[in-house]
Design goal:
Blueprint: E1 3-5, H1 10-21, H2 26-40, H3 47-53, H4 55-71, H5 75-89, E2 91-93, E3 98-99, E4 104-105, E5 111-113, E6 118-119, E7 124-125, E8 130-131, E9 144-145, E10 150-151, E11 156-157, E12 172-174, E13 179-182, H6 195-224
């Protein structure tokens, strides 16, 4: 199921705003990425396990390094860590993409983030997510995920999109195309209601009710207007 959970995180953004004025150290960002993996993944047992066996962490390490090189003008060397992540883990993050603090990728395979894509702080992606191109404009042609967003497996934002419009903060959106289902954040996303299924169920119930009413009417008509008896007579 593809879905996005979006929530406001003004306090997190405000706290990071001053820190972003001075570029944080690479090790500080990586420590935060590893820590959030342990906090958000109930299957994580230790920091060592996350560092050595989590492909999502390996992908973000490659991207953090590639992004530093890219921003310092070393464009070709920046492509090498990005290429390695794509080759080994099937994860394509452009070195120029902007990714905030405490970024977590569950099952870090099969996702794409373009060059002008922007990801805020405290964002979680599952496998198969695409932040694809929305236009040919060179300045900004990929989507932006604000802080505190959770994107479910297989979700496509932008090119070949499931979600093609802006989503207001604090709402849950699921389905193809995306539909707002409620204004409450519920991280037990396997319990999220399905608006398409609900609509089909409501339509089926209404159809069944109409069928019953029509059936009752037809029975009433048969009782009110009984069929006349066949004429009796001797067959020739």
């Amino acid at each position: 199921m593809s879905f996005i959970l979006a929530t406001t995180s003004s306090s997190i953004t405000a706290a990071r705003r001053g820190a972003k004025a001075v570029p944080p150290s690479l090790m500080a960002m990586l420590r935060e990425d590893i820590a959030c993996g342990k906090a958000r993944d109930p299957a994580a047992r230790s920091t060592l396990e996350i560092v050595l066996t989590y492909p999502g962490v390996h992908v973000i390490v490659c991207h953090r390094l590639a992004n530093r090189l890219w921003r310092r003008g070393f464009r070709f060397p920046a492509r090498l860590p990005s290429w390695a992540a794509r080759l080994v883990m099937n994860a394509n993050i452009h070195p120029g993409a902007t990714i905030g603090w405490r970024f977590l990728i569950h099952h870090g395979t099969g996702f794409v983030i373009g060059e002008t894509g922007e990801v805020g702080d405290e964002v979680t992606l599952y496998h198969g997510v695409t932040l694809g191109g929305t236009s040919w404009a060179p300045d900004k042609c990929h989507p932006t995920l604000e802080s505190g967003v959770l994107v479910g497996a297989g979700c496509r934002v932008g090119a070949d999109a499931v979600f093609i419009e802006d989503i207001p903060p604090g709402l849950t959106v699921i389905g193809i195309p995306g539909r707002i289902v409620n204004g409450r954040i519920d991280l037990d996303h396997h319990l999220i209601s399905n608006p398409v299924g609900d609509a089909i169920a409501s339509s089926s119930t209404a159809s069944h009710s109409s069928s019953c009413e029509f059936h009752g009417c037809s029975v009433s008509l048969r009782r009110t207007h009984p069929r006349p008896p066949f004429p009796r007579g001797r067959m020739q």
